[in-house]
Write a structure and sequence with these properties.
The protein has 230 residues and is mainly alpha-helical. It has one domain. Helices cover 84% and strands 0% of the residues. It is built from 9 helices and no strands.
Length: 230
């Protein structure tokens, strides 16, 4: 049976684990941004990708399939393969995200990204420093996320601007909570794995994916609320 870690050992484990998680997350965001910017800058690629609804649908399905495959197989993959899949997902997300440049102005996209980064940082600090157990509130937020997905599917047919506004507001609140909850979860995870082992490397990749998804979704909901359309 493993001996409980001392406070000094816990702090050392957290210092070795969390910076790696945030490094992978930030790198993935950079990959997404670079790919989105370059794809958006090519009218030919934009025409090829978004003039056909089936291509858009295929990209969406590929995104879902890749993130599910990575999450399901993470414990069976070597860290380099898991990392490759993670960055592949980030690049694919960048391809899909290039479409937002067709809808919103570049200035509002940049401003929303900065606002998202600020909110993400604040909630990460809260999740890291709070003594409150965020598990229950995180579970409530996750249930609300399921409700958002259902409501979004319904609104796909209703095309209600009011419902879309409500969904966006709730979406921001949900992911603000999830960022804090997931940061706290990763802080605890750091003391439960050997950060220098393959298990620790895989855990850091999954943690980065979790925070990356929180950031991306918060960004999208904020953009829907405050982005200036072309």
């Amino acid at each position: 049976m493993n001996q409980p870690l001392s406070l000094a050992q816990q702090e050392q484990a957290i210092k070795g684990f969390l910076p790696r998680v945030y490094l992978w997350m930030v790198t993935a965001l950079l990959v997404t941004a670079v790919v989105a910017w370059n794809v958006a800058g090519s009218a030919a690629i934009q025409q090829l990708l978004f003039s056909n609804g089936w291509v858009v649908f295929g990209l969406f399905i590929a995104q879902i399939g890749l993130v599910i495959a990575l999450s399901a197989a993470i414990n069976k993959l070597s860290p380099p393969v898991a990392m490759l899949l993670f960055f592949g997902y980030a690049a694919l997300t960048g391809v899909v995200f290039s479409s937002i440049f067709l809808v919103y102005t570049g200035t509002s996209i940049a401003a929303t990204f900065v606002a998202t980064a600020g909110m993400f940082g604040i909630m990460s600090i809260i999740g890291f420093t709070t003594g409150m157990d965020l598990t229950k509130v995180g579970n409530i937020a996750f249930m609300a996320l399921i409700g958002i997905i259902v409501a979004s599917l319904i609104n796909f047919f209703l095309r209600s601007a009011a419902l879309d506004w409500i969904i966006s507001i709730v979406g921001v609140l949900v992911f603000v909570v999830l960022i804090a909850r997931d940061t706290q979860k990763l802080k605890r995870m750091a003391t439960q794995v050997d950060v220098n082992s393959e298990q620790g490397s895989r855990a850091s990749i999954m943690g980065a994916l979790m925070l990356y998804l929180d950031f991306i979704n918060l960004f999208l909901f904020l953009l829907r609320l405050f982005g200036n359309r072309r």
